[in-house]
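Final report, results section. Input specification for complex C-07:
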Amino acid sequence: MSENYRNNFLREVEEKVEEGHWVKMCMQCGVCAGSCPFGPHWAHPPQEIFMMIRAGKREEVLSSDSMWMCTSCYQCIVRCPRKLPITHIMHGLANYAYRLGLSPKKQPTQQFASMFWNNLAQAGRVNELKLSLGMYFKDGFAQGIKNAMAMQSVGLGMVKAKRLNPMELFAPHGVKDKSGFHAMLKKAREIEDRRKNLA
Amino acid sequence: MTEVIATNQTILVVGGGISGMTAALEAAECGKNVVLVEKNSALGGRVSQLYRYFPKLCHPICGLEINQRRLKQNPRIRVLTMAEVTAIAGGEGDYTATVKLAPRFVNENCTACGECSKAVDSEVPDAFNYNLGKVKAAYLPNKMAYPQRYVIDPSIVGTPEGEKAKAACKYGAVDLDMQEETVQLKAGAVIWATGWKPYDAAKIQPYGYDRFSNVITSVEFERLADIHGPTKGKILRPSDGKEAKNIAFIQCAGSRDENHLRHCSRICCMASLKQTNYVREAYGDEGKSTIYYIDIRAIDRFEDFYAKVWNDPNVTFIKSKVAKAVQDEKTGDVVLHGVNTEGYHRYATPHDLVVLAVGMEPSVKGADLPAQIVSDSSGFIEADPANHAFFGAGCASSPLDVNRAVQSATASALRAIQVVNRVARVED
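Structure output:
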């Protein structure tokens, strides 16, 4: 019966977004929004995102940069009077928007997240040198040089303290069974796609 | 030894607040014998600590006086104060209750003249005023106390102060040798009317009740408005005694929150709406109230009261559960932070005084009851056949306002009467 009252987007979120079935439980008290330490800096606080989902504003929600601003401090989860896993829902929405290709392209958290994943997925280990260089140069070559120069002392310090190996740029280390690792990721992706009907 | 005559046709009522008094009176006026047990030194419970009732805004003293008069006139009720039920054994028609009687150190010779109080110097926290002030260690529990008898605080017994109180009494009423007693009472049915307690506001960490002096609870606010309260009825804030003319009420302080009380306490919305009237009464158009709420739950006929307050230009409603309170050390003002659901605007608003509309918790929770009793997830007693002739009444059974608590008490009295009638038929 109550199914009839749910709009298509709410149903879509419930089915396909991690922890999305919780969205209908929000009672719009606003404690998450008020408690978020990043609150003033994002367009829509969680409370508003939940209401937008329930109002069927699909494009606005999925293309919003709000979910990407979450720093996972978990303050909202701790304080939510209805125990909604708000942080997880935010990540779920971000991931779903990304999979659909609707997430904002220039959002730095999203850029870093995809860079981190691609880096990790190659060899099964994070190559920190490539990752940080990737971040430096994400806005073009000239900006990259500037960033690298600004961080020079930190980088050299890390090399001296043996926290950063320059050779990693040419011979990155990884897991022993790389093909097994890739097969595992592929399988996990298949399972996820099947569960969320994303195939 | 305290003599109490009770048989298995007696109804035992535990708790002497408005519900317990009502249940005891209804049963006794139907011709049943009742023992009324109260933990405190006077009857009346939380109702006696209220300044006014909603929605009529009359004084609880009035209703309590009527009940006290009914009690005095009725020989079928035996009242035991400073008495606590520690165990209940047996079953329907044949219960045995163990009752612990704490010493009052004042016997029935007391005329409430107050000489003992004048004689002593030491003071103890004033429990009637939620410890907002102090009283002499020989005190009358409150102005309307029933029985109208002084109490000597155990802390001065065996000290020169105690002897001073004894020497001051012309009637030989101070008896410092009184001991704690335990008595066993028979009963055919038990009405459990132990009422509620305000949720411990210090547990709601972001509101800073334990850190900020100008954050108080709604029950404390009742005492501030009362002429017999610590400020003689003036609404002054605790930090500096300044007149509090800009007051915030935070709803659902503890209630409707899985981290605190999972139930809606039902009365807090109406209590805050009522308390905005205290602010207006004290300061006229200068008295401003702001209510921060999730949604206002003013049920059935209370809707009119809500509409009236809603239209009051001195009362502002902000649809938001406050996220955080911070007290400004210099000014003493409390700044409330949050996001308004209507428009999702951020606010940081200073107030002179913040009142937390704290939720209701059962005084004695399910597992702490002296018998195996079915109660709900918040500890309120259920009307369950498995509870046999053990009936919850008033706020022991559900968060209720005074009106509904009295209805619930009358219902429990009817159930208990049926039980003792069955017992009487078998015995005759």
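The longest strand of chain B covers residues 83-91. Chain B has three domains: 10-101+180-195+363-427, 115-168, 199-360. This concludes the modelling results for the funded period.
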